[in-house]
Protein: HxlR family transcriptional regulator
Amino acid sequence: MAGASRRGPYICGIDAAMDVVSGKWKGLILWELNAHRVRRFAELRRGLNGVSEKMLTQHLREMEADGLVHREVYPEVPPRVEYSLTVHGRTLNQALAPLGAWGSERIQREGSEVVDAAGA
Amino acid sequence: MAGASRRGPYICGIDAAMDVVSGKWKGLILWELNAHRVRRFAELRRGLNGVSEKMLTQHLREMEADGLVHREVYPEVPPRVEYSLTVHGRTLNQALAPLGAWGSERIQREGSEVVDAAGA
DNA sequence: CAGGATCCCTTAGGATACTG
DNA sequence: CAGTATCCTAAGGGATCCTG
Structure:
């Protein structure tokens, strides 16, 4: 599968986590599913403004394979599929929180000087 | 510049943080510099087994531009350059810690069943 | 509605050779 | 030693069309 996770031998935890999170929309999908608990395909598409059907499907499938997302199919017509986070998805979201905070701070001070506390 | 950070408008903190961390070796560089405090180019290369000179330079330059890494050049011969983390680099490392822990746990249970606590 | 299939473009990543 | 320059491949991402 194209774009699937490596699942290869990892050097460290960051490595393994990044492997699972890398992908243009995965962070947002996590965010969306965490905020709404349950979302349908079309709802997610609207939430992730600009994502193509292919990419959304692909990311969703990878995240499902990685055990982050649960996919519930209702055998109805018209078809209905609901996505939600698994417990792993939720713990990942929590682990991501500090990083999100760091990023937010970074956005705040965008443009200000960059400190240097290197060797000095 | 190829592979440079977007620095574009970010949707959320995760987005901004991921932008700065994405890159095959950045996590490891952060790790190396955090562990050793100061590293020379060749030392980093050895630490990051398999990285090419080009990629190491490229990543280092991007991280420098992002204010994560400090580059100290000693005008000697033979040339000597020392890399270290800035305070931003160190806080990023701290923000990354929970994610690293999550990834480590994930590696541990590799192969075990993937829980499903979705809609149920 | 949800998504599979296909084609195409852009980007990340890497090998190698050369230089201050 | 610490890069820079160049070339190449692989993977990520996306548009569009088609189907259960």
Summary: The CA atoms of residues 2 and 35 of chain B lie 28 Å apart. Residues 13-104 of chain B form a domain with the Arc Repressor Mutant, subunit A fold (CATH 1.10.10.10).
